[in-house]
Amino acid sequence: MTYFTKSAEETERVGYGLAERLDKAKKGRAFIAMRGEMGVGKTAFTRGFADYFGISGVKSPTYTIVNEHRGRANLYHFDMYRIADGDDLYSIGYDDYVEAEGYCIAEWSENIEEDIPEGAIFVTISRIDGKEGERRIEINEDISI
Ligand SMILES: Nc1ncnc2c1ncn2[C@@H]1O[C@H](COP(=O)(O)OP(=O)(O)O)[C@@H](O)[C@H]1O
Ligand SMILES: [Mg+2]
Questions:
Q1: What is the share, in percent, of the chain residues with pLDDT greater than 70?
Q2: 133 lines ligand 1 (CB under 6 A)
């Protein structure tokens, strides 16, 4: 699915919608791999996703790598910007998060390509040339499985 948004709030709504579809499909867990450059709206999308589960206070976890949130579902919010290799991932306990009940959402998943679990949902956000404040959001999801 492709969405076009004109504000951070609209991007949040797209994130909210994905959370709602996963929840209604009774997917108790999923790995959401986000792609897109700095300032494109990955954290905004995550904020909306979290909001669906009653979670607030989502911030870019750039310095902590992962923020854990508890709401109607667990949400593990990663920022892989500083991850250079598998050792870095190992040191944050990545494998345990991936296997945990709940949702993982990873900003800068470009940096962990090899370690993205099978069945992940890819969310790619890009700017639209010459249009400040507009974004294209591509969600590659197969909720049927
Ligand atoms: N359509 C849009 N969707 C998302 N963010 C937008 C949009 N238009 C403008 N923005 C702005 O872009 C910035 C996105 O920030 P953020 O979500 O932190 O990006 P990222 O996590 O990708 O670095 C915010 O300042 C937001 O207000
Ligand atoms: Mg961010």
A1: 97
A2: yes
